[in-house]
């Protein structure tokens, strides 16, 4: 038997084409006769468009069409909720946010389209945009908005969670807030649409080709079978490419109307307004515990913004339901609609912000009780799912804590704040718990063995830079018993069998088992060919006597590789589709777990916080490719460092403009901000999620990061910052 | 970006002759092209000056002379600059990114436009871009804006790092016009916004910076540039300080200090310099002296922290350069 590649550090199978520029992204496609679309955006934050003078634009060189709400492309209402805008662009004259799509210019060149767009004169009836929560965080509990009902767990004999909190021996109340943030994927949103009769081919950025087909089918009124979405490579998504934003329907509908292919790419500034953001949130947290630190009640009243143009908002308080044991827990969600673009999912939507509050509060409470932060968490370790009482499918968070504490040297941590000074730097350490839900959906995968000795593995799945290609190759190679480099994964094509979209940390746990099923099924097909094809040396044998192993078929002392067998039989390939069903297990709670330990330094004169040491220990089930998995966690920690220290989209309150909606002013971390990030995986398979035992890792790594950093900043300085990002002005007093 | 004519003259005289209303000089392009893409600048005629003979970094007549077309990276790495003017090298290396430093010229660096996000977004009013349209930064998003030299018309900071070092070292710019050269101290070259924030400096529309001259001084050898920002690279200064110090037996003989990130132009801090002179080089002296740095400060809602941060930045830079605690 070959040694399994599962769990080994395997280089990305798509690495070479990416670093050499050979990988084809959506905007790289240039079908013959291509035209270029440019989206025109609103320059007010709220109101009604009263007129658009497009005469100069239409007369501008190379212009083929100018679409506006007065001359719209016909688009039908969206049906499936894709966490993006609720309605297709240009179908009404209402302006819901600054930077909204109000026109689409198509021309022979991109420059011509852009120049013509600048000639359009739009008049509005303006209204003052609503761009902030109606009061200071603490006053937001009773915000008069479309609140959802509470999610409540009550201990026996407790009448209300308020009563449970009030009865606590020690109580703690605090409010935590987080700003608008943006995904900032490197690749901007792009769609290239080309029609052949009534068949559409769309090259588009997407976290799931089937999502794009569905959206296009609905809004164009075209049978899904006539839509082919191709998206083999996506330059980062983080949730921002789950939805099919305005450029998708516009490019496709305009291409149909004009009878020419159309490309539409958002500018970076447009990505900020038109392609979603992480919403504003506030969490008003109340906790009660015994004098020795056992939680007795928690309430977390979460407030989230949503855009008037969309329906999505963050269930920011829900992480409190499932993290620490407490006999009584209540979370609520209040949604405040704002005149900002549609809010959408962004890496660990709810958990990344939710954990900032709870992980900060756990430390604040521990400090009040004189407990070590880790001890506080172990005292409240959730052996069962806190809000349901169900057992976990698997949970080794305690092992993460122990191992992380040991490797990080947590026991040497001074109990007092401001206890460590190195030169002019105040040094502190902090920790934060990570957990993220795990699930396994329905997926089908096709495996094809070819006469050239290679195997292809295809499904509609997406690789956003996550390593999904390599996961497919590793798992197929493992089951087929062939080297990884002889497997050719094919992703992002809507004509492939339907696999999991890239979202909810779902790809590997859902698609992985399906790859295994398909790679097994194709062996049966190969054996069937071997015994039935007249040219096969195994012709006429009982299939039960023909064995597939390590890329070859054997029987009665004769062994032949599948490539040779297919060549001998003069058959190009054999293939099989394997399906792995959705996991339905209402008896257990499924989550990935982990812990972050970090060191932060704060300059005693100028206050800037710098992360200087990092260790993450993750319990995410079976790790398929330890190299890519480590990158996933490291990338998430980097994003979390941005969330904690740098990233905030500033809203200009008068206009609703994102004042810093560009990559010069919206600060994401640079290399110099990032210390070496050590990542450890426990690699304990989850016995219930699948035979493979893999849980998700895409989002897990960002959860708990901001909390850990906030806790380390507090340990270094004695200053507790409850508003992200933790920028130096908040620490100058220290 | 709008259509424009393009010319690439090979002599300064020819370049000056080509100027007319609506023309703009193009050197490294790191400001001009950027702002043309945003429609903030819409020149009809672009005069590419990269072929002009304005190179060279040399010591002569008691001055460091830097040709206006020298790239930031070349100046930063020049041995003379590194040894005799460490503050210049350091200010350059803490600017922008490697790619930008390889493109951007020294002359262009001094003329770079503000990073105020209202200036850079043509959908917003801005007195600098559109005189009389208003200044939303006064009450809007203004965390990064100026606390010194601002007016009710404009609070945009000057973005250059190396200009701060130059102002501290009393550098001059050589400006060539059709009538010949004039030499202007850089500090005076820049103008305060007042009611005319669109006029940023003394350069006429038919003039070109051809050289920067920095006086050689013993001070410059003991100098540094400290830049405070949220992220550790590739960001404009929240505050920055260029410091040059001359010490004898632990006493400050002379000092030159200028600040960036806080002023509408590079901000020379003479009162701080005066307060240092004759006093022992120690933290207490530095903290006391730094108090006067913010005289006349006009903080806005989100940038009041710069008052404290500037003083702390000065103390930290002085501690660094004096080598004392």
Automatic annotation (TrEMBL), chain A:
Please state every residue range assigned to the domain named Aldehyde oxidase/xanthine dehydrogenase a/b hammerhead: 20-128
Q: Which UniProt keywords apply?
A: Molybdenum, Oxidoreductase
Q: Which domain of life is it from?
A: Bacteria
Show the GO MF annotations: iron ion binding; oxidoreductase activity
Question: Matching InterPro entries, A to Z?
Answer: Ald_Oxase/Xan_DH_a/b (IPR000674), Ald_Oxase/Xan_DH_a/b_sf (IPR036856), Ald_Oxase/xanthine_DH-like (IPR016208), AldOxase/xan_DH_MoCoBD1 (IPR008274), AldOxase/xan_DH_MoCoBD2 (IPR046867), AldOxase/xan_DH_Mopterin-bd_sf (IPR037165)
What protein am I looking at?
Answer: Xanthine dehydrogenase family protein molybdopterin-binding subunit
Gene source species = Lentzea tibetensis
From TrEMBL, chain B:
Q: Which UniProt keywords apply?
A: Oxidoreductase
Q: What Pfam families does UniProt report for this protein, alphabetically?
A: CO_deh_flav_C, FAD_binding_5
The cross-references to InterPro entries, in alphabetical order and at most eight, read: CO_DH_flav_C, CO_DH_flav_C_dom_sf, Diverse_Substr_Oxidored, FAD-bd_PCMH, FAD-bd_PCMH-like_sf, FAD-bd_PCMH_sub1, FAD-bd_PCMH_sub2, Mopterin_DH_FAD-bd
Record-annotated FAD-binding PCMH-type domain positions: 1-219
Task: Name the SMART domains on file.
Answer: CO_deh_flav_C
Which GO molecular function, any one, fits this protein according to its record? FAD binding
- The protein in question is named Xanthine dehydrogenase family protein subunit M
- The source organism is Lentzea tibetensis
Q: Mind giving the lineage of the organism this protein is from?
A: Bacteria, Bacillati, Actinomycetota, Actinomycetes, Pseudonocardiales
């Amino acid at each position: 038997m070959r040694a399994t590649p599962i769990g080994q550090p395997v280089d990305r199978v798509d690495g070479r084409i990416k670093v050499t520029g050979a990988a084809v992204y959506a905007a790289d496609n240039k079908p013959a006769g291509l035209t270029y679309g440019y989206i025109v955006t609103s320059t007010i934050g709220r109101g009604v468009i009263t007129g658009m003078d497009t005469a100069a634009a239409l007369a501008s060189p190379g212009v083929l069409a100018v679409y506006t709400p007065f001359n719209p492309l016909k688009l039908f209402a969206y049906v499936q909720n894709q966490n993006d805008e609720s309605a297709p662009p240009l179908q009404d004259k209402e302006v819901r946010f600054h930077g909204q799509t109000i026109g689409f210019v198509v021309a022979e060149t991109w420059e011509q389209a852009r120049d013509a767009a600048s000639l359009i004169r739009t008049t509005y009836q303006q209204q003052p945009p609503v761009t902030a929560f109606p009061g200071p965080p603490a006053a937001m509990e009773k915000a008069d908005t479309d609140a959802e009902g509470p999610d409540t767990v009550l201990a026996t004999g407790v009448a209300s969670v308020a009563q449970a909190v009030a009865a606590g021996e020690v109580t703690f109340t605090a409010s935590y807030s987080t700003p608008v943030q943006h995904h900032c994927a490197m690749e901007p949103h792009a769609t290239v649409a080309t029609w052949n009769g009534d068949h559409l081919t769309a090259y588009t950025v997407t976290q799931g080709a089937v999502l794009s087909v569905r959206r296009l089918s609905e809004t164009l009124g075209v049978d899904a079978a006539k839509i082919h979405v191709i998206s083999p490579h996506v330059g980062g998504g983080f949730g921002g490419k789950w939805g099919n934003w305005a450029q998708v329907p516009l490019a496709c509908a305009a291409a149909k109307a004009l009878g020419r292919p159309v490309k539409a790419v958002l500018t970076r500034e447009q990505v900020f307004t038109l392609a979603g953001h992480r919403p504003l949130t506030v969490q008003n947290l109340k906790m009660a515990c015994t004098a020795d630190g056992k939680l007795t009640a928690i309430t977390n009243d979460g407030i989230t913004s949503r855009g008037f143009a969309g329906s999505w908002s963050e269930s920011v308080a829900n992480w409190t339901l499932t993290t620490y044991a407490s006999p009584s827990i209540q979370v609520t969600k209040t949604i405040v609609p704002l005149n900002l673009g549609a809010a959408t999912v962004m890496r660990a939507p709810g958990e990344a912000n939710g954990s900032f509050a709870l992980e900060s509060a756990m430390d604040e409470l521990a400090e009040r009780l004189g407990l070590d932060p880790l001890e506080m968490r172990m005292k409240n370790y959730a052996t069962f799912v806190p809000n349901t009482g169900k057992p976990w499918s698997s949970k080794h968070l305690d092992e993460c804590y122990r191992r992380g504490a040991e490797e990080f040297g947590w026991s040497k941590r001074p109990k007092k704040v401001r206890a460590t000074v190195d030169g002019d730097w105040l040094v502190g350490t902090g920790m934060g718990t990570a957990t993220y839900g795990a699930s396994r959906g329905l997926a089908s995968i096709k495996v094809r063995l070819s006469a050239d000795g290679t195997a292809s593995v295809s499904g509609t799945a997406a690789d956003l830079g996550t390593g999904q290609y390599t996961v497919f190759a590793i798992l197929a190679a493992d089951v087929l018993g062939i080297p990884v480099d002889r497997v050719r994964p094919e992703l992002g094509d809507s004509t492939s069998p339907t696999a999991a979209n890239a979202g909810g940390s779902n790809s590997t746990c859902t698609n992985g088992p399906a790859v295994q099923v398909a790679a097994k099924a194709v062996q049966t097909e190969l054996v069937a060919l071997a015994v039935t094809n007249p040219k096969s040396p195994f012709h006429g044998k009982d299939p039960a006597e023909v064995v597939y192993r390590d890329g070859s078929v054997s029987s009665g002392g004769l062994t032949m590789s599948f490539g040779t067998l297919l060549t001998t039989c003069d058959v190009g390939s054999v293939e099989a589709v394997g399906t792995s069903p959705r996991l339905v297990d209402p008896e257990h709670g499924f989550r990935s777990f982990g812990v972050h330990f970090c060191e932060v330094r704060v300059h005693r004169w100028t206050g800037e916080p710098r992360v200087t040491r990092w260790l993450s220990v993750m319990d995410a089930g079976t790790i398929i490719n330890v190299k890519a998995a480590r990158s996933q966690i490291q990338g998430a920690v980097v994003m979390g460092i941005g969330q904690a220290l740098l990233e905030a989209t500033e809203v200009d309150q008068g206009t609703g403009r994102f004042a810093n909606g560009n990559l010069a002013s919206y600060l994401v971390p640079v290399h110099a901000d990032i210390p070496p990030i050590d990542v450890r995986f426990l690699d304990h398979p989850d016995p219930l999620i699948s035979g493979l035992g893999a849980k998700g890792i895409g989002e897990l790594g960002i959860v708990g990061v901001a909390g850990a950093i906030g806790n380390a900043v507090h340990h270094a300085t004695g200053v507790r910052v409850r508003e992200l990002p933790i920028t130096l002005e908040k620490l100058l007093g220290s | 970006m709008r259509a424009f004519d393009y010319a690439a003259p090979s002599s300064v005289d020819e370049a000056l002759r080509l100027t007319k209303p609506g023309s703009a000089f193009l050197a490294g392009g790191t400001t001009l092209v950027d702002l043309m893409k945003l429609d903030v600048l819409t020149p009809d005629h672009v005069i590419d000056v990269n072929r002009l003979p304005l190179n060279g970094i040399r010591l002569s007549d008691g001055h460091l002379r830097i040709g206006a077309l020298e790239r930031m990276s070349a100046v930063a790495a020049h041995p003379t600059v590194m040894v005799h003017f460490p503050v210049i090298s350091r200010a350059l290396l803490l600017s922008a990114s490697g790619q930008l430093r390889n493109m951007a010229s020294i002359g262009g660096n001094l003329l770079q436009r503000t990073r105020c996000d209202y200036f850079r977004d043509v959908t917003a009013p801005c007195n600098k871009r559109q005189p009389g349209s208003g200044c939303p930064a006064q009450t809007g998003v203004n965390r990064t804006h100026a606390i010194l030299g601002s007016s009710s018309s404009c609070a945009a900071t000057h973005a250059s790092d190396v200009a701060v070092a130059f102002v501290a070292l009393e550098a001059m710019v050589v400006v060539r016009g059709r009538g010949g050269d004039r030499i202007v101290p850089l500090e005076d070259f820049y103008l305060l916004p007042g009611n005319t924030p669109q006029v940023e400096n003394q350069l006429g529309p038919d003039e070109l910076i051809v050289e920067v001259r920095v006086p050689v001084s013993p001070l410059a050898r003991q100098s540094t540039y400290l830049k405070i920002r949220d992220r550790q690279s590739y960001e404009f200064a929240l505050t920055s300080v260029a410091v040059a110090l001359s010490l004898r037996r632990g006493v400050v003989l002379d000092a030159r200090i200028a600040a960036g990130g806080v002023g509408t132009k590079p901000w020379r801090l003479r009162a701080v310099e005066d307060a240092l002179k004759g006093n022992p080089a120690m933290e207490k002296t530095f903290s006391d002296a730094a108090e006067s740095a913010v005289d006349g400060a006009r903080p806005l809602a989100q940038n009041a922290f710069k008052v404290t941060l500037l003083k702390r930045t000065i103390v930290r830079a002085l501690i660094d350069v004096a080598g004392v605690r």
